Amino acid sequence: MQITHRHEWNITPAEAIRLQQQMRGETEYQRPLDLNAIKLVAGVDVSVKPNPETGRDHSQAAIAVLSFPDLQPVETVLADMPTPFPYIPGLLSFREGPVLEEAFKKLQSTPDVFIFDGMGRAHPRRMGIAAHMGLWLQRPTIGCGKTHLLGKYAEPADVKGAYSELTDHGELIGVVLRTRAGVKPVYISVGHLADLATSIELVMRCSPKYRLPEPIRAAHNAAGQFGD
After folding, report:
1. Is the Cα torsion angle 210, 45, 195, 69 positive or negative in sign?
2. What is the percent of the chain where pLDDT is above 90?
3. In terms of Cα–Cα distance, which of 52, 33, 85, 3 is closest to 206?
4. CA distance linking residue 30 with residue 50, whole number of Å
C-alpha cells in the first residue's frame, strides 16, 4: 500500500508537539462514511516489550484486515523494530508511527477504513495516532481507545450501543461507547476523513460479541505474538 511520508520521526518531544499543532488543521472530521460501500476494515495495534539483550524496548506493529460486514480475515501484516521514542502522554504516534509506517508498506490490500487502538481527536492537540496516521494514509481513520486520555463525560447506560459525549473545553471530541453490556466502554473519536456518527455505527457493526471491535482484537492478538 502506498502512503505519504509526511515528516521524519527522529525529532525531539518539543518538535513533536509543534508538529502536531501544525497538522491539526489538516484533518477532516465531519465527512460521513458510506457504510454500504465499505468492503475492508483494518485494525491497527502496536505491542511494546523490553528487550533484555539491548536494555531497550522493542515494538511490533500489526495490521489486521477483515472483510466487512462479515468480519472474516483477509490479511495480517507485521513489522518490528527497536522502539525509537520514549513514552510521553500525547505523543504516542511518535513512538508507534515508525513501526506502523513499515507495516503499512507491506499491505497488499487497501482497506476502506482503519480503526486504531488509540485516539483520534480525543487528544490535547486533536492529533492522536488515528488522526496523525490518517494524514499519512489519506484513508478514513477512527480512534478506539481502551482508556480515558482527556475530556469530560457522563457514564453511558449499561446497554450495548449506549454512548455519552466526550467533551474538552466545551468541544465535542468523541464519545464513550458501550459496545457490550456489563463491561467497560471504549473511547471513540474521529481520526481523518470520517465523522463521529458513522464512526460509532461502524465500530458497533465491528463489535458483534466482544468489547473491542474485531479488527482491533485481531491486530492486538497478532502484535502481541513476538518471535523468539
Report:
1. negative
2. 92
3. 33
4. 39
Is the Cα dihedral 13, 14, 18, 19 positive or negative? negative
**Dihedral, 73, 79, 85, 86 alpha carbons, nearest 10:** 60
Cα 124–89–126 angle (5° rounding)? 25
Burial label, 9 (beta-carbon count in 10 A; 0-12, 13-18, 19+) = middle
Question: pLDDT digit string (tens) for 26-72?
Answer: 999 999 999 999 999 999 999 999 877 777 899 999 999 999 999 99
Residue 228 has a pLDDT of: 42
* C-alpha dist (Å) from residue 115 to 53, 85, 146: 33, 23, 13
Residue 218: what residue type? A
pTM score, whole prediction: 0.95
Cell numbers found for residue 223: 502484535
Calculate mean pLDDT across residues 122-147. 97
Cβ-contact 206, 178 below 8 angstroms:
no
Reference 215, options 110, 76, 52; nearest CA is 76
